[in-house]
């Protein structure tokens, strides 16, 4: 987001030269530069044997299931966000997390950091912001996630990572 006014004190921002970023909006009152950075968010594909953890959140997609996701908050590492979000949304403890690359979502200025993780322990106990959560056979994941393009990309990467050879998993991909 490119700020015009200081989000803390409301002063109109001026431009200040940052030596490698060029002119950056700057509040002379708070002595703060407002870089035009995206919001970091994690997306996690949790595996348990041949199953993957999917959620339904009606405020995101009406007819589609999604992976666990959430914003990175101040004071934590991205890895900590992964453990925390899976725990908060589903009650599950995960381990062996692996980074699968990033995806930029221009409409929301979000940088999505994608991961796979392994189930360690816990029974599904969804948070109130989640409408449904359960383990889904890996073969059905892409079909169940029709509207979630980024989530489906994560699942495809995960299938490659685990050298999954079942053709059935890709049957809902548009050829
Ligand atoms: Zn200010």
TrEMBL record:
GO molecular function, one term: metal ion binding
Gene3D superfamilies in the record: Nucleoside Triphosphate Pyrophosphohydrolase (3.90.79.10)
InterPro entries (alphabetical): NAD-cap_RNA_hydrolase_NudC, NudC-like_C, NUDIX_hydrolase-like_dom_sf, NUDIX_hydrolase_CS, NUDIX_hydrolase_dom
Named cofactor requirement(s): Zn(2+); Mg(2+)
Keywords: Hydrolase, Magnesium, Metal-binding, NAD
One annotated GO biological process: NADP+ catabolic process
GO cellular component: cytosol
The keyword NAD is assigned to this record: yes
Database matches in Pfam families: NUDIX
Enzyme Commission number, as recorded: 3.6.1.22
Domain Nudix hydrolase: 37-159
Enzymatic reactions: a 5'-end NAD(+)-phospho-ribonucleoside in mRNA + H2O = a 5'-end phospho-adenosine-phospho-ribonucleoside in mRNA + beta-nicotinamide D-ribonucleotide + 2 H(+)
Coiled-coil regions, chain positions: none
Transmembrane segments: none
Family, as annotated: Belongs to the Nudix hydrolase family. NudC subfamily.
Protein name per the record: NAD(+) diphosphatase
Source organism phylogeny: Bacteria, Bacillati, Bacillota, Clostridia, Eubacteriales
């Amino acid at each position: 987001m490119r700020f015009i006014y200081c989000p803390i004190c409301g002063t109109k921002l001026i431009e200040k030269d940052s030596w490698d970023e060029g002119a950056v909006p700057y509040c002379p009152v708070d002595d703060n530069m407002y870089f035009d950075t995206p919001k970091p968010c994690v997306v996690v594909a949790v595996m348990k044997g041949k199953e993957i953890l999917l959620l339904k959140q009606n405020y995101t997609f009406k007819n589609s299931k999604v992976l666990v996701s959430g914003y990175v908050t101040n004071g934590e590492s991205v890895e900590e966000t992964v453990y925390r979000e899976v725990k908060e949304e589903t009650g599950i403890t995960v381990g062996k997390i692996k980074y699968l690359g990033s995806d930029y979502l221009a409409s929301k200025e979000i940088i999505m950091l994608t991961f796979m993780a392994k189930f360690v322990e816990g029974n599904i106990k969804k948070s109130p912001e989640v409408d449904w959560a359960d383990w889904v056979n890996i073969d059905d994941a892409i079909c169940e996630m029709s509207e979630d393009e980024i989530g489906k990309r994560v699942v495809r990467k995960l299938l490659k990572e685990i050298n999954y050879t079942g053709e059935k998993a890709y049957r809902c991909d548009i050829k």
